[in-house]
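User: As part of a screening pipeline, I want to sanity-check one entry by hand. Below is the sequence and the SMILES for zinc ion. Please return the complex as structure tokens so I can compare it with the automated output.
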Amino acid sequence: MDVTGWPFDHHGSRAGAGSVRRHNLALVLRQVADGEPVSRAAVAARTGLTRATVSSLADELLTTGLLTELAAARGGQGRPANPLQLNRSGPAGLGLEIGVDHVGACVVDLTGTVRATRTVPSPHRTLHPHTGLALVAGLAAEVIAGAGLTVIGATVALPGVVGPDGVLQRAPNLPHWVDVPVSPALSEMLGGPPVAVGNEADLAALAELWFGAPWLTDFLYVSGEIGVGGGIVLHGALFRGAGGRAGELGHVVVDAEGSPCSCGGRGCLEQVAGQEELLRAAGARDVDDLIARRGAEGPAAAVGVAGRALGVALAGAVNLLDVPTVVLGGLYARLGEGLREIVQCELRTRVVARPVEVVLSEPGTGGALRGAAATVVRERLRHP
Ligand SMILES: [Zn+2]
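Assistant: Here is the complex for your manual check:
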């Protein structure tokens, strides 16, 4: 669990007993989530709270369905202790994704485990936004029924710039999606649960932070899709920039005289290393065809060009941000070791500060969807 943003009451004298109890409930929940299953005694020892306080707090968390008890371990002396763990049948999070050419939905339980997921093609460059939203709402109903859990909220991963009010302000690859109020529209279609929105690369970066290698706390995540998205994680937290729009790596210029880009610029990384240009240059029908033939001469040359451009853009970002690791996700993760080595080689010669390691995403494709769903349950764990 990340601890950044964990509610800690710095105003104990004014906040009162209710606030202290809420803080302690979150503290106990975090201890269980960090090392379940765990006994009440161990939670007391780790938090410094008394056994009686922990028991009372645990009882409340059992009643509200956030925790469950396992059967007591046999063989000990005195009253057997039932270890605590997060309730796999408790509140669940819904993740939704509206991509350039697909929609997805998934449900995760309190541990972040995916319990139901589905992705289907959907051409959003030509579809009206309302049609796209209705399609994702239908898919949501399907996965909720499949998971059989109570969904307490949703987060939507979007391929563009999102505002704090749940509006998709602009998505360079979706010309019809300008100032679309995604949160209120989907909340109504789904029957009222709170719906948040986030940038798809940011949510995929969070999935990497939460479900990837435990040592990954400072990294730059880059996903290859139709667009090229970036997510920045510093000190175990997402870095969003002054206005929440940081990470637009796809529109970093790698060739000042290059092809015009959907953003209005020219020679952006996306025009060289985005999925469509990569497929075109490789002479591949689709992503599966590219992956299958990536060792052949034409596709290998195309991957080489894309990988070097990716390395150039990433080197600029790494020199600016001083992160020790770059994570390749989406299509780039599927291209595997061949692409990883090309990017690593570029960074070796271009980064001035220190060696940078390039790794492939662990959650892989589907990271944005899982990250979106997990934000919902993690918020509940922070505020039980
Ligand atoms: Zn651009």
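Points to compare against the pipeline: Residues 251, 261, 263, 265, 268, 270 surround zinc ion (CB under 6 Å). The domain at 92-200+368-382 is CATH 3.30.420.40 (Nucleotidyltransferase; domain 5).
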